[in-house]
Design goal:
CATH topology: Rossmann fold
Number of helices: 7
Strand content: 15-25%
Largest sheet: 6 strands, mixed
Structural class: alpha/beta
CATH architecture: 3-Layer(aba) Sandwich
CATH class: Alpha Beta
Distance between the termini: 37 Å
Number of strands: 6
Radius of gyration: 16 Å
Strand order of the largest sheet: 3-2-4-1-5-6
Shape: globular
CATH superfamily: Phosphoglycerate mutase-like
Length: 228
């Protein structure tokens, strides 16, 4: 039996659109100054982990984040489009409040985590899960017994957590998706397993966590899952 692959999964650093609660999806939004600082600290924190390979979404906010890890470890970053954020179609570029105001029925299905719902031109949660899990499995299978880093987006982290904990895509989210949080998993041919989640000890108080605000209720959770 092959040894399991150890995985460090990291969401990109903060962007101006994270701050504005504007939906990025697959639009190519760069890191802001805070995001660069977060990524730099993350890279330093993981410098001595012995990472064997780094794969990152080719969207610049994730790839730039991964480059700090590459610089601190000496490992080349490989672009992987399969780690892109969920495609949000016509939601992209809108704020949460604009979606709620302009597309109320679609906003309702989004809030309720309808697995089959996709914004016009976008992906459903089921399509996102199939893409992310398939990509992560393919990459992990290349590195039995090794440690790899996967750098992506909130939606990607959400899918990986659910895969490791056997939660369905429509289950309410109660876990954090912090910018540059360090998340640890194992992969074997039997699937993913959770080792640790949401480690932000390398940051001070500047990590923007998507669970901080819920548009309608003011509580942590569902509406903001997987937006960047």
């Amino acid at each position: 039996m092959k040894a399991p692959t150890r995985i460090i999964a990291i969401r990109h650093g903060e962007t101006a659109w994270n701050v504005d609660t504007r939906i990025q999806g697959q639009l190519d939004i760069p890191l802001n100054d805070t995001g660069h600082g977060q990524a730099r600290r993350m890279g330093r924190a993981l410098a001595d982990e012995g990472i064997d390979a780094i794969y990152a979404s080719d969207l610049s906010r994730a790839f730039e984040t991964a480059r700090y890890l590459g610089l601190s470890t000496g490992v080349e970053v490989v672009a992987e489009p399969g780690l892109r954020e969920r495609a949000f179609g016509e939601f992209q570029g809108r704020t949460f409040l604009e979606v709620e105001s302009e597309l109320p029925e679609q906003a309702r299905r989004w809030r309720q985590r309808d697995p089959h719902f996709s914004p016009a031109g976008g992906e459903s949660l089921l399509q996102l899960r199939a893409r992310v899990v398939g990509t992560a499995e393919r990459l992990a299978a290349r590195h039995p017994g090794e440690l790899i880093a996967l750098v992506g987006h909130g939606g990607v982290m959400d899918v990986l957590y659910r895969a490791a904990t056997r939660l369905e895509v429509d289950a309410p989210r109660t876990w954090a998706l912090g910018n540059t949080a360090i998340n640890r998993l194992l992969w074997s041919p039997e699937g993913f397993a959770l080792v640790g989640w949401g480690d932000t000890r390398h940051l001070s108080d500047d990590a923007l966590d998507e669970s901080t605000i819920d548009l309608l209720t003011g509580s942590p959770g569902a509406f903001r899952a997987g937006l960047g």
